[in-house]
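As agreed, record copied across for absentees:
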Amino acid sequence: MNWSSGRKAWVTMLISIYSFIFYCSSSIFTPTYEFMMIQYGVSVEVVRLTLAVYVVGYAVGPLIFSPLSEIACIGRNPPYIFSFTLFTIVSIIITMVDTFPAIVVLRFFQGFFGSPCLANGGASILDIFSLTNASYGFICWVAAIFCGPALGPLLATYAVSSNWRWSHWEIVLMSAPTLVILFCLLPETSHETILLRRAQRIRRFHPMILAPSETKHLDFQSMLIDALIKPTEITIQDPAIAYVCIYASLVYATYYSFFEAFPISYGGIYLMSQSSVSLIFLSIIVGCVLASVFYVTYLKYIFVPRCHKGKPSQEDRLIPALPAVFLLAAGLFLFAWSVRRSVHWIVPTIGIAIYSGSSFIVFQAIILYVSLSYPRYVASLFAANDFVRSITAAGFIMFSRYMYLDLGIGKGVTVLAGLSVGCIFGMMFIYLYGAKLRARSKFAVAD
């Protein structure tokens, strides 16, 4: 995309803010659990549905909105604007309803309508950046995705003390101004859509001018297959995509299990108040920021100079993830084995920061690897990956509390850390043999 750096940065910032608000809205309800249990007479298991159904909503949404954004006559912006408008409307309605079943249903639609930023956000960044510089755009976007859920409880904790519905209004106060900015100031990024609109303007004077997309036969059935069936086929046949799907689901589900683990560990073991427990989530943001600094340094001084000397392979994008997968498991083990009253609370918190930063690096690496290895199916693969990891996270939201109470925080997190250790070998295998796997694949791009 032949745009100025400032315009590219502007688009990246808007998409990142949009994604941050959407992810922050997932966890912003958690400090209201006790208030809703008293208000509506529901159990803690039932009240957790307000988070779980939101996650299920944004698991389903990208499967529908992602293919729409690939149609030239639609583009990226209409799914963003239309769906985020409905997200804001649903958010306003939630502030006014006073029955728990209605809140649960509306939370699903809230997650569903806000979801285009998940799969399409990465596609928008790939639209405007070169393959070498796309990493910088992904840093901002992935950081917003990671920091959003961590900041949600903190934003709501101090507000709900006066009125528990303030957490609902905070979503409206964040989303409404952002919607206006997106509608007025977000430019279209889809190459085919831009060329189509340009051809339509020129055609008023030169009727024979056609855009590239107008010479293609739009087969909705083929689009549906590419969006829904093809990712499943690729996941089954290509070990690299299957691994990415499994590992991303584990990391994501572990993250969302912290909304149950932190109150049990810091509230139950260290006797912290709810506001103090919410502050512990800042360790996730600290880890993400430190990892961002490291990753930018790596790109600027190691990776980009290497690109100028020769074209790196897709597997070279995985190099930062090789130590990160070890640190991710180490961070979980540190948290699991140190969260006890005889050990200062900062020690397990450092483990969470290590886990967070390592997860950030891993996600950066696999997003780039999938984008470069499967460019034709990248949007659909992102949507399918989001579906699997979000459904897994929703399941963890519902049962992780029982796991931590029955096994204890130490043993429960150790189980997740052990699963993470098993995934280390998958990353090493793809780095060493990924080129051979891509050469044999009928879906991937070979070197």
